[in-house]
Amino acid sequence: MEYIRKWMIIDRFRARIAAFIAVSAALTVLADLSTAPPASAAGCGQFAYVANLRNGTLSVIDTRTNAVSGIAGFDYPAGVAVTRRGTRAYVTNRHNNTVSVIDTRTNTVTATITGFNDPWAVAAAPDGGRVYVTNRLSGAVSVIDTRTNTVSATITGFSDPYSVAVSPVGGRAYVADRLSGTVSMINTRTDTVGATVTGFHEPYSVAVSPVGGRVYVTDRGDSTVSVIDAWTGTITNTYLGLHDPYSVAVSPYGDRVYVTNRDGGVVSVIDTRTNAVTTIDGFHDPVGVAIAPDGRHGYVTNPAAGTVSVLDIRTNAVTTINGFSHPLGVAVA
């Protein structure tokens, strides 16, 4: 009976978290509709942002028509992230060691933040107040205060921080450290490293489920995807049989996990309810992946082909958009 009571408490706690996420998302939409001009529809999934590493641009895909426009002025852009409200995007520039801030309502660069060292991955906190950036050369994670557009903290002690993700309910950020084979948990209230999860070979990408307290990590060293229990910091499951898994993204409802496989030219789909893994063909050396806020479409970058694939989540149909220049990071606002 004591065992059953404990699980009932956990289930009620998780249900409250899910309800909190739903209410927060609703408030976010209302806030954006009250401040953003209707033409931009910021935060509604209207635009997908793609970092083009080679030509120094950020492509903007209109998700309604798949028409592509561009923003110039970047320097080897690699990573891109958007705030939960979708009103700002952040782009890492590897060559000049800066992060660019884009107003997604006008699609213009409004600020350039300095003080990085080979900035690579980027992720925004759910309240939009902080943005986390990995610095591969210095082995550090920088914290941007979005109110002042300055670096407010630097978290050191990593070997090659390759990816970062922030919990949708706040409190923690997760960093995949490629060379050390670990995933570190950052307390976002204190900006210090708490627990470190070991047991990986070459972790590349990390994503946090919006429900259920699960963290997903791709491991290129052994072609697996591992699941970390966010409450205990332990690995609870490992999916085998992938083909050089690179990036990972979770659907808005947490029921599907999407993984790009560079070797196979496929995207693996993990059903988190049944643990079944299926594959979708039609990609070419896929790297980045992002799911739209409404969960209807996914966007996958194919650097070698210079294309972005649009995945219809309901039918698994793939549409290819041409005209990119070694596209890497992708995010939807």
Automatic annotation (TrEMBL):
CDD domains: NHL. Residues 87-168 form the YNCE-like beta-propeller domain. Keywords: Signal. It comes from the Bacteria. Residues 1-41 form the signal peptide. The keyword Coiled coil does not apply. InterPro entries: Haem_d1_sf (IPR011048), Host-pathogen_enzymatic-act (IPR051200), WD40/YVTN_repeat-like_dom_sf (IPR015943), YNCE-like_beta-prop (IPR048433), YVTN_b-propeller_repeat (IPR011964). NCBIfam families: beta_rpt_yvtn. PANTHER family: DIHYDRO-HEME D1 DEHYDROGENASE (PTHR47197:SF3), PROTEIN NIRF (PTHR47197). This is YNCE-like beta-propeller domain-containing protein. The lineage of its organism: Bacteria, Bacillati, Actinomycetota, Actinomycetes, Micromonosporales.
